[in-house]
Specification:
Layout: E1 2-16, E2 23-39, H1 61-64, H2 70-77, E3 82-85, E4 91-96, E5 100-107, E6 110-118, H3 131-137, E7 143-148, E8 151-156, H4 159-164, E9 167-169, E10 174-181, E11 186-194, H5 195-201, E12 205-209, H6 220-244, E13 251-252, H7 254-270, H8 283-289, E14 296-303, H9 308-316, H10 319-325, E15 332-338, E16 341-348
Parallel strand pairs: 13-15
Antiparallel strand pairs: 1-2, 1-12, 1-14, 3-4, 4-5, 5-6, 6-11, 7-8, 8-12, 9-10, 10-11, 14-16, 15-16
Domain CAP-associated: 66-204
InterPro entries: CAP_assoc, CAP_dom, CAP_sf
Keywords: Membrane, Transmembrane, Transmembrane helix
Amino acid sequence: MRYKMISGFIMLVVLISLIYVYEHNETSQKIIDWPLVEKKSEVKLKELPNEKLFNQLYTGSIYEWIGKTSDSLKREYGKPERQDLSAYGYEWWVYSDKDYYLQFGVEDGTIKTVYGTGDISIEPFEIGQTYKEINQDIAFIKEVSYLEKLNSYQFHLTDEEIKARPLIKLSQDVFIQLYFDTIKNQLSAIRVLTGDILLKHRPYEMMYRGHLPKVKELTDKEWRKVEKGMEKQIFDITNIFRKQFGVDHVSWDDNVSKVAYAHSKDMENNQYFSHYRLDGSGLKERLQEKDVYYLVAGENIAAQYPDAPSAMAGWLNSKGHREALLNKQYTHLGVGVYRLYYTQNFLGKP
């Protein structure tokens, strides 16, 4: 069977307002990130001769956590800053400070995935390392296979995905996604995950024989926990990215987060993707309705990314969106996530 991906998508609006002056600039970019269409196929999976196992190269502590217990994680790092429910059956244990950010995905007491950015131990790589340097040591390939009992899976990466988030097979059941800043051509983040978690995320087009793991259907209450976690994750990662580029951090704004959440929910409920509601009102009107005052403001939106880190990678790799992420004029940020619709509202306050 083949999974074909539909485009995740992101959009930006920049709003500059001094009292009632309003100017906006809008760009959009399609990002392939989330397959929702299944088609039957009789194509036979093949073993790839150029596929290698690189586990002897990886000495950074981030890889060693896969398969370890949450108790050992707590002994090493202490109590997590937060425990955020994910949409895929595991819980994110979040550890961060001004220099680094780590999320450990824990399922049934076992670490199944790790995402990290900032000052973290990921030898033989390092955050900020160039694509060319890494690609000289590891030849990224377009087809990566995974065997699980009687089930066979093969991930197919596009040219764009090879540049932005190549997939490396670390062992028979562990994979690495490298997230590159495609504008600077530098490594911006890393994710290590087991094969079953990779199948639940389905971030690439995939051929398979056998069965796909089922993802639990969430209740509205569980979804809200997931959404609140992703809102904080986007906020934290935004500030790590800003620090990497020498930009001051932004502060969390609860009122603006409510504005952002309402827009994400409205887009999902009414099945549209725009900075403008169906009645034509935009960010300016939404902020005015909640009596939000500002000197400058901007908005990033995204949809159909499997989680917050992948949405952040999409924004960073779009020129207009990264301008909002790294804008020195912004002092505050509100984030609103509803299901897989994401909204960032930036403000510059006096």
